[in-house]
Amino acid sequence: MMLARRIDARPRGRSSGQSMVEFAIVFPLFLLVALGLVEFAFVFNAVLATNFSTRTAALLAAEAGDMAGADCIVLQGIESEMGAPADKSRIVEVDVYRSDASGAPIGSLITRYTRTGSRSCTYADGSTITVPYTRQVDGYAEANRCNILTGCGSDPLHTVGVRVQYSHTWKTPLNNWLPGGSTGWVFLRQNAMRMEPIL
């Protein structure tokens, strides 16, 4: 009985003060980890959406071949695949290029578009596609793409690649806590497919 009275007689404020200090030390670390997880989820989603959009675009480019207006179909495919929470307005540029077997561009055979202005393509059936892109470089024109099974003269059947540059901006205030701060990340994703051959 005596022992119980002595324990009860200790001041209680000291214990609760210690808990407050521990909470003050641990809470910022917990908040940092939580914000880091949320930011990572947004970045990971943007990377996956960009990668998936390049895959779809490369398939469309391989199917379209040397058709006039093929690039509008490719660009529209990228736009349709960049779903939320990824932001299609954060696409910086798109390259459609002739690719080697490993998926890398061959020389300067690149047509580059930036996500500014608009571009329209009209097709034989009278339909029109308008996309929010402007062509900056025309090093791999649609008419110069070889999709003939036996090749085009000495040029074999092409492999076409699509590369997307995406600029991810911070979604959480985590950048305020990091030294030097940052505006986000810029990353590239690309895919290449062999042209769908015609006889």
What attributes does this structure have?
two-stranded antiparallel ribbon; 3 helices; 36% helix; alpha+beta; five-stranded antiparallel beta sheet; 199 residues
Summarize the structure.
The chain is of the alpha+beta class and about 200 residues long. The chain has helices at about 1-10, 15-65, 70-80; strands at about 90-100, 105-115, 120, 130, 135-140, 160-170, 185-195.
SSE layout and pairings?
Blueprint: H1 2-8, H2 13-64, H3 70-81, E1 91-99, E2 105-114, E3 119-122, E4 128-131, E5 134-138, E6 159-169, E7 184-194
Antiparallel strand pairs: 1-2, 1-6, 2-5, 3-4, 6-7
Helix pairs in contact: 2-3
Give the integer mean of the pLDDT values. 88
- For the termini, the CA-CA separation is 100 Å
User: What share of residues is helical?
Assistant: 25-40%
CA radius of gyration is 27 Å
Total helical elements: 3
Major sheet attributes: 5 strands, antiparallel
Strand order, sheet with most strands: 5-2-1-6-7
Number of domains: 1
**Class based on secondary structure composition and strand pairing:** alpha+beta
Oligomer: single chain
Order of helices and strands: HHHEEEEEEE
